[in-house]
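Key result, reporting period 2: structure in, sequence out.
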């Protein structure tokens, strides 16, 4: 690594400004005489979209493996496997001469309507953070960089370039930031990509608190911040906020604006130097790894198949699956022949090969004869003739395999979904086919939750196959024929209907603003709090075997927050085939100063078990597993008290509970202030000691001021009435009786509760 400070000293102002803006849509600006090479970035996140000509924004990219999209990856709940995927992506980057892949995408699934949810992992920040961390570690183990995106609160496509996402600090800190925080702290992505949208009034690209105070200062991010493509509005402001590299380039006007701003004294050159330092650090790091060679396309296709099969979620099975040998199988649905295996937009990969489900089924079906019917057209139109044909095919067979893919014009980057239903034709098709042939399996391809209430009772089995990448067809065949025992579980809730979903009343916003009115109650946190039933809960998925949980243990029943603890449980495969179970650990706080979700995922483990085998699963919990973000203290805090540790097979299927007692080691300052109410004073341990002796006197005098010496005055209980009034305001009603001004008196009280 060359001496970066020495290079910066030799750079002209123009060269510095140019380095902070791309030279092309996909490359940074080289400075040849100083030995600074260009760095080439390409889209991801689930494959490498390397354009042959880096001066173009969009064209067919070079062939690369299209791995399963993030929805499917997250449903594996298998960090090691996602890391393997990352390694494979890294290898492909090397072969395709890519220095940094633009992924993973790590935004929360705030609503299933977001058109880009297929690219995002989960509705839960812990799970998402784990997935992103593993993917980044995998890619970067190959000497290739990543770009953790889109930071932050980029949770919809509607007006994504400009929408102002208004959310409170706890929602931000507890839901929308932790997945980024975990990935930054545990994997140090080389770059973080800032989102297009505004956050609480400022473009993310100009958000100093987000880019500098939180990301760089608080979390210790060492890499560079890159803009999403076209997210910069004011280059000088964005540099001041901490946005190091603007993409795409070239943009002569931006370079000039930066140079002028330094000359005019508007931009401190030290700010520019800091961005230059960060960019050079990554550019030289990228340059250390030689590029070229080939990747093993066959091995990566096999890996893509393995991951796809592990991420598919068996939602329903009346015993029809795995399929037994049969004579005649009706394969219905256009996506059996023309698979929809990836989403549209910047992540669109030119695959090295594509498994066609029909062909893959044929390979595993032995002697069985497979018939085929389209079932539905390529668009969303209604064509009864196709349904009639499908019904006839289903009747003539012993089993119907019904492939249903949500059309690309409904779900993609760039636009959100209008509803959660399949198309009218698809719903009618499922109903008609499953009525004619009860032995029907529905195989779904979609990037996010859909509703099924209308038809779920019809088919014998339903497999959620997501947008599973180029090898998805083979993976589906593996599961249907029992070559792979399904072990995926949902990383997002499937609700009964759209109106049940948490962001329903606050999506997609209007007049340029979207208010996150549901706060941190997204996904299962919301359904739990509302006690609302859902079709399939977070963490749910069936297997061809069964698992028993027993012997739960905690490493300590009483523990200090800083020490954390660990939870263990024995899991036994009680069925007849080998299988994998995902054990989930949720934490429930008995009592807290501020509102908390009923429970939150804080750990999980995936365990592989032979029939009859038992393994002990141990899951560690640290300080953060018990903490919540306190906006008053501006930090994560813990409180003394009891917590339930819920060990479950899904968010609604708890198998064991352990109760533990936390001792907080925090010594927090009192938050009492001149506006604090009696209730707040009494809730504060130090405040209570100070106010208790005075409270009776104050209330009696207040009663007198109102012409009564009873506790009930004007039909109300004096004590109850006063509880939510500021002590200061009450004292003002009786100031003539006080030896000092009410302000002085409250100041004196506050002095007694402040720390020495
Ligand atoms: C997307 C990014 C992508 C970039 C470059 C943007 O529109 O939001 O995810 O990396 O384009 O293609």
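The corresponding designed sequence is given below.
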């Amino acid at each position: 690594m060359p001496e970066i400070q020495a290079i910066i000293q030799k750079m002209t102002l123009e060269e510095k400004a140019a380095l902070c803006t791309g030279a092309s849509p996909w490359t940074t600006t080289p400075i040849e005489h100083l030995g600074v090479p260009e760095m080439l970035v390409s889209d991801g996140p689930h494959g490498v979209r390397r354009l042959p000509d880096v001066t173009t924004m969009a064209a067919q990219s070079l062939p690369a493996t299209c791995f399963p999209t993030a929805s499917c990856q997250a449903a594996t709940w298998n960090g090691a496997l996602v890391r393997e995927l990352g390694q494979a992506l890294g290898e492909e980057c090397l072969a395709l001469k890519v220095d940094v892949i633009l992924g993973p995408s790590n935004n929360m699934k705030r609503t299933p309507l977001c058109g880009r949810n297929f690219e995002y992992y989960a509705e839960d920040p812990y799970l998402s953070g784990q997935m992103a961390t593993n993917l980044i570690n995998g890619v970067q183990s190959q000497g290739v960089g990543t770009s953790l995106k889109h930071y932050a609160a980029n949770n919809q496509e509607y007006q994504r370039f400009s929408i102002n996402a208004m959310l409170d600090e706890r929602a931000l800190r507890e839901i929308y930031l932790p997945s980024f925080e975990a990935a930054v702290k545990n994997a140090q992505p080389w770059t973080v990509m800032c989102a297009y949208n505004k956050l609480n009034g400022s473009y993310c690209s100009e958000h100093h608190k987000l880019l500098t105070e939180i990301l760089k200062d608080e979390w210790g991010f060492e890499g560079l911040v890159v803009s999403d493509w076209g997210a910069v509005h004011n280059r000088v402001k964005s540099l001041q906020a901490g946005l190091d590299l603007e993409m795409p380039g070239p943009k002569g006007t931006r370079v000039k604006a930066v140079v002028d701003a330094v000359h005019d004294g508007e931009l401190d050159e030290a700010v520019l130097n800091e961005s230059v330092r960060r960019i050079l650090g990554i550019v030289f790091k990228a340059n250390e790894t030689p590029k070229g060679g080939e990747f093993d396309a066959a091995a990566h296709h096999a890996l893509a198949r393995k991951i796809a099969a592990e991420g598919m979620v068996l939602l329903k099975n009346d015993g029809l699956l795995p399929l037994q040998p049969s004579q005649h199988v009706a394969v219905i649905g256009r996506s059996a022949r023309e698979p929809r295996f990836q989403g549209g937009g910047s992540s669109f990969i030119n695959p090295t090969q594509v498994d066609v489900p029909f062909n893959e089924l044929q390979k595993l079906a032995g002697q069985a004869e497979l018939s085929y019917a389209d079932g539905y057209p390529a668009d969303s139109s209604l064509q009864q003739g196709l349904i009639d044909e499908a019904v006839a095919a289903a009747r003539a067979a012993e089993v119907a395999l019904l492939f249903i893919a949500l059309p690309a014009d409904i779900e993609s980057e760039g636009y959100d979904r209008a509803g959660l239903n399949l198309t009218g034709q698809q719903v009618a098709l499922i109903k008609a086919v499953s009525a004619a042939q009860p032995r029907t399996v529905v195989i779904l391809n979609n990037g996010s939750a859909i509703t099924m209430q209308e038809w779920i009772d019809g088919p014998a089995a339903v497999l959620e196959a997501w947008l599973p990448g180029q090898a998805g067809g083979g993976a589906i065949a593996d599961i249907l024929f029992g070559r792979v025992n399904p072990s995926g579980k949902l990383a997002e809730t499937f609700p009964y209907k759209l109106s049940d979903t948490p962001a329903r009343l606050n999506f997609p916003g209007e007049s340029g603003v979207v208010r996150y009115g549901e706060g941190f109650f997204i996904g299962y946190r919301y359904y739990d709090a509302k006690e609302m039933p859902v079709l399939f809960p977070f963490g749910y998925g069936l297997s061809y075997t069964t698992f028993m949980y027993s012997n739960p243990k905690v490493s300590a029943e009483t523990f200090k927050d800083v020490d954390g603890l660990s939870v263990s449980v024995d899991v036994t495969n009680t069925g007849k085939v080998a299988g994998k179970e995902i054990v989930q650990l949720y934490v429930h706080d008995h009592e807290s100063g501020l509102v908390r979700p009923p429970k939150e995922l804080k750990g999980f483990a995936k365990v592989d078990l032979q029939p009859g085998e038992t393994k002990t699963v141990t899951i560690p919990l640290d300080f953060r597993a018990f903490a919540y973000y306190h906006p008053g203290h501006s930090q994560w805090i813990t409180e003394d008290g009891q917590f339930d540790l819920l060990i479950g097979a899904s968010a609604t299927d708890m198998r064991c509970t352990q109760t533990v007692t936390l001792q907080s080691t925090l010594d927090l300052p009192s938050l009492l202030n001149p506006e604090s109410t009696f209730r707040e004073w009494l809730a504060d341990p130090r405040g209570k000691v100070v106010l208790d002796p005075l409270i009776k006197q104050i209330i009696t005098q207040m009663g007198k001021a109102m012409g009564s010496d009873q506790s009930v005055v004007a039909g109300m209980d004096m004590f109850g009435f006063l509880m939510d009034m500021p002590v200061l305001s009450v004292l003002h009603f009786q100031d003539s009786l006080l030896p000092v001004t009410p302000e002085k008196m409250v100041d004196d009280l506050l002095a007694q509760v402040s720390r020495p």
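Residues 685-705 form the longest helix (21 residues). The mean pLDDT is 96. This case is discussed further under Risks and Mitigation.
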